[in-house]
Give the backbone structure.
Amino acid sequence: MTAQILDGNALGQKLRAGFKQKAEELAAQGVRPGLAVILVGEDAASQVYVRNKVNACAQAGFYSEKHAYAPDVALRVVLDKIAELNADPKIHGILVQLPLPRHFDADAVLDAIAAEKDVDGFRAENVGALMLGQPCFIPCTPYGAMKFFEDAGISLKGKEAVVVGRSNIVGKPMAMLLMHAGATVTVCHSQTRDLKAHCLRADILVAAIGKPKMITGDMIKPGAVVIDVGINRLQDGPDTGKLCGDVDFAAAREVASFITPVPGGVGPMTITMLLANTLESAERSLNA
Ligand code: NDP
């Protein structure tokens, strides 16, 4: 079996065309969706992510602004900027690009964002609402992953889903969304005994680990749907410098029924769902 590719660029473009239309409709009512992105430090990957997010806003007809700070900026300066953005009616979403420099208290920064502008869905209010199945901003990466199932008509009811990784921004919310959708969910992490045995049971396998090609072809159940969240830069071999996921794509493709590539899978969907959340926030502000 050769798996069908779940193409995040194509699905993202399709969804973003709808967002652009909605943004124009909102703008006609006096509200243009607006996103503020805060970048602290000089991490090369973060700079690329921020640029992509700002470009995506422009293409979808959203307003955006970027606030970049040197790595040694005082925490107070960033908190003051967030307070200013919280009060700014042009801004419907505030995103702080992670990771922050080590000396920063990331929780303090994320907690400073007003809950109604927390389009990353990282604040406790949003996390709690997600757990309770209440309206919330769903964290963009797992939200994007869920869109693949919806678009490809993959039912999750009664399926065995295995999520490898338990981070607050990917693994945990992913598990919650899969559970809400009717899957039976197992969450694996670095202390899991016999990861392979768990993975081999998965009808739906989500890898969010941060280790290049850790999920090998022999860890995948024939016909499984594989969502590869990982973004890793290869450090050696003939492909040094290239991006790859947490899954050995070439081998997995021969076993799975559907698979997301890296790049071009979950990455573009993360940005797409950031736009979705910003749009939703703008709509809420109009209705408030
Ligand atoms: P974290 O480092 O926060 O979490 C990694 C998780 O993997 C942890 O729960 C860890 O377990 C687990 N893990 C580590 N080693 C193993 C192992 N040997 N066996 C099983 N589990 C293991 O990473 P993130 O969740 O933030 O990101 C994961 C990956 O996804 C990264 O490559 C990141 O770059 C990428 N990413 C991609 C995005 C996109 O848009 N496509 C967005 C966000 C992230 P433990 O908790 O026990 O330490």
Remarks:
- The CA atoms of residues 34 and 63 lie 4 Å apart.
